[in-house]
Design a protein that fits this description.
Length: 162
């Protein structure tokens, strides 16, 4: 079951540079602390994340910190690695994996990532209903399995041996 949430977003228009089709592009207000819009790996679907309410957020962070404890990393580097790994702990949305590092939508018609965005100032604000990040599969795992997943993702997505 997909949990959904209605929320206000800033609306822009995106135009595909390959096929010319238009699509809506959403942004959250810069004044929402701990809230983000993420995308699926294919860039087709937005997903809402409230970092403060997300049950797995702190747990994932703690596991990652235990893996990188002996490495000298900046806070920005740790954050980058966290978001590279985070999607592997999320349930799929519309049969697609979450990619917390993806910042650009793709064309709904041809799949191209070449979308030019026409932002308005002041932006139009609309209310949309979006899926909320969940971690049902993750929550059902024991601690060893969770750590193994984080280690494997760290090796694969961060190109660093553990």
């Amino acid at each position: 079951m997909t949990i959904q949430r209605e929320l206000p977003v800033e609306l822009s228009e995106g135009v595909c540079q390959k096929c010319g089709d238009k699509r809506e592009v959403f942004n959250l207000s810069g004044f929402l602390y701990g809230e983000r819009l993420l995308l699926t790996e294919d860039g087709q679907c937005y997903v809402y994340l409230n970092c403060l309410d997300d049950t797995a957020f702190d747990e994932i962070n703690q596991i990652l910190k235990s893996i990188i404890v002996d490495r000298k990393m900046s806070h920005d580097q740790e954050t980058e690695y966290f978001y590279k790994i985070f999607g592997s702990t999320c349930d799929f949305v519309n049969k697609a994996k979450i990619d917390a590092t993806r910042t650009k939508v793709s064309c709904l018609s041809c799949g191209s990532d070449e979308i030019s965005v026409n932002e308005k100032f002041p932006p139009d604000v609309i209310r949309v209903t979006l899926p909320v990040i969940t971690h049902s599969a993750w929550d059902s795992m024991d601690e060893q399995m969770k750590k193994r997943i984080i280690i494997n993702e760290f090796k694969e997505r961060c190109a660093i041996s553990s």
